[in-house]
Amino acid sequence: MVKVAPSILSANFAKLGEEIRDVEQGGADYIHIDVMDGHFVPNMTIGPLVIEAIRPITKLPLDVHLMIEHPDHYISAFAKAGADYLSVHVEACPHLHRTVHFIKECGVKAGVVLNPHTPISMIEHIIDDVDLVLLMTVNPGFGGQKFIHSVLPKIQRVAQLAKERNLSIEIEVDGGVNAETARLCIEAGANVLVAGSAIYGEIDRAAAIRAIRGKK
Ligand code: DX5
Ligand code: ZN
């Protein structure tokens, strides 16, 4: 089953509650929340306070994508704020095994994220311990960028690894996803599609979500 995770990065922050309810009613499966610190990526967004404010207004799981240095310092704050999934970049985690297990000890599902150039070998020894693998299909930091096609074989490789090891993990893609690139990701084996501008840039969010899911 293909799931769609609208990224609120492209929403109107002045009416964030309404923007979240709109995609929930439009059939979204997760709410994707991009946390940026101005160090790991050249942009700044939101922290635990905003997640705490969002938590009571939606029933959907909150899929929190940490694009920050030293994520270990903030994991318990994001867990307490109500994150359902916490995903960390392997490029920001020298002790990834410890970080992943700390996320789980906090009662949250753990995800690992790879930038477009980062090889799958970086997660071969941790994939059995995670709930989600997120493959970036843009360089993180901004919405509205162009999909990087060279990530497609990486999606296939993760799907193959999951199958070989009999793992039931979410395989998520993020960046430049629209109806057309979503189809390529699904064919390669992704089952969770993050989309910001392709959903929030449209007036009819329900139709945009259906298009990304591959339904009319
Ligand atoms: C990029 C973020 C994405 C972003 C995607 O750093 O991680 O989640 O919101 O935006 P689009 O779908 O517009 O590429
Ligand atoms: Zn993201």
Automatic annotation (TrEMBL):
Cofactor: a divalent metal cation; Zn(2+); Fe(2+); Mn(2+)
Co-factor binding details: Binds 1 divalent metal cation per subunit.
The UniProt record lists the keyword Manganese: yes
Catalytic activity annotation: D-ribulose 5-phosphate = D-xylulose 5-phosphate
EC code: 5.1.3.1
Pathway: Carbohydrate degradation
Record bears the keyword Glycosyltransferase: no
Binding residues for substrate: S7, H65, G141, F142, G143, G144, D174, G175, G176, G196, S197
Organism domain of life: Bacteria
GO molecular-function term, one example from the UniProt record: metal ion binding
Record field: transmembrane: none
Record GO biological process: pentose catabolic process; pentose-phosphate shunt
GO (cellular component) term, any one: cytoplasm
Location of the active site: D34 (proton acceptor), D174 (proton donor)
Binding-site list for a divalent metal cation: H32, D34, H65, D174
InterPro entries in the record: Aldolase_TIM, Ribul_P_3_epim, Ribul_P_3_epim-like, RibuloseP-bd_barrel
Keywords assigned by UniProt, alphabetized: Carbohydrate metabolism, Cobalt, Isomerase, Manganese, Metal-binding, Zinc
Function: Catalyzes the reversible epimerization of D-ribulose 5-phosphate to D-xylulose 5-phosphate.
PANTHER family linked: RIBULOSE-5-PHOSPHATE-3-EPIMERASE
Family: Belongs to the ribulose-phosphate 3-epimerase family.
Protein's UniProt name: Ribulose-phosphate 3-epimerase
Annotated source species: Anoxybacteroides tepidamans
Lineage: Bacteria, Bacillati, Bacillota, Bacilli, Bacillales
